[in-house]
Amino acid sequence: MPNTKRRRLVASAVAVTLGATALAACGSSDDDSGTESGPVSLTYWTWTPGMDKVVDLWNKGPGKKARITVTVKKQASGDTLVTKILTAHKAGKAPDLVQAEYQALPTLVSNDALADIAKDVGDAKSKFADGVWQQTTLGTDAVYAVPQDIGPMMFYYRADLFEKYGLTVPATWEQFADTARELKKKAPDTDLTTFSANDSGLFAGLAQQAGARWWTTEGQKWKVGINDAATQKVADFWGGLVEEGVIDNQPMYTPAWNKALNTGQQIAWVSAVWAPGTLTTAAPDTKGKWAMAPLPQWNNSENVTGSWGGSSTAVTTDSAHKGAAAEFAAWLNTDGDALNALAKESGIYPASTSAQLSGAFMTPPDYFSTQADFYTLASEIAKTTAPSAWGPNVNVAYTTFNDAFGAAAKNKSDFSAALDTMQADTVADLKKQGFEVSE
């Protein structure tokens, strides 16, 4: 791989994972900078439902908006979209705008697919928490995207069944384990929750909360720490509960999991702020019976959460109208009307701090109508999100997680071995791609 490309990504990673001072950016959107007088047509690849209705607000708006028309092209999400973007970019035909999950940004930046739009997004930085903004800058002076939604993690539980079984909402993970054991003694056919090996993002968020830094750098080399002490602690904790049999070991998002939530066979879920939408479908008969609390902590003195999900709006280097595209990206994720529409049409939880306690978020989700302070508490939890540390091959780490942890959960075997497999596969892939890796 070209040395300049590797150095750029390594520099970004240093800033992201170690909190280094801002480094010089590579590249910029030096074309139109939003100053074109003629009409501009932009294409936006996104998977967010209802985005076309939100974009209509822009297309029908006055002034500058009238000269910039945005067309939404619905796409698949996750690795599928990243691959499609990179394929299009190699041919010089990527769209003007793309929706990108935060963990995908280093991969896209390392392939020179995203433009630096720092000078074209105005005062957008002031609209977001520092930790959120950092994910789109990779810690440098560059800005590679504008944050759209975030997924701070929290603890959901059946308030009625906690009361029935005499359980206390756990404030620490030790108490969480004790609660699982207590419930199993009182109701042998009931589980507190499940460990699901079909969503690597959940495990990554739990490791993030514990202080994990999966990708860091040493000089000009990548260092992979997926089996670091923090992640090992998380793996041992959940593996121990599965082996002990005090929680379930089945995957989420299946008919069986839905039924377990809907019938009270499982009475809690470690999830993120977007959980109400999932519960509405998975457990419709239990509406109004759930409550939300902060994620359990590893120590009583801590107050930190992880992140599960979230995405941004980025401008590609192939766009002929980077300034106009950046102008739209900033509007989409900071304008009050746009954010209200995103909440209504797409069900997102906005990254913009001001939007988290306004508009659609003045009242709790309908499913949680009995918890009036739902979004107030969610906003406070969001402020405690731990820093992220992503690398250029998150997809490989996540795929290995699904395979290795899936087998370990099913067999109730050693989660540590699964973590080592995840580490080894990620390191091997980095080397295969031509990155220098510190052992």
Automatic annotation (TrEMBL):
Statement: the UniProt record of this protein carries the keyword Cell membrane: yes
Keyword line: Cell membrane, Lipoprotein, Membrane, Palmitate, Signal
PROSITE patterns: PROKAR_LIPOPROTEIN
Signal sequence, renumbered to the chain: 1-24
Domain of life: Bacteria
Protein's name in the database: Extracellular solute-binding protein
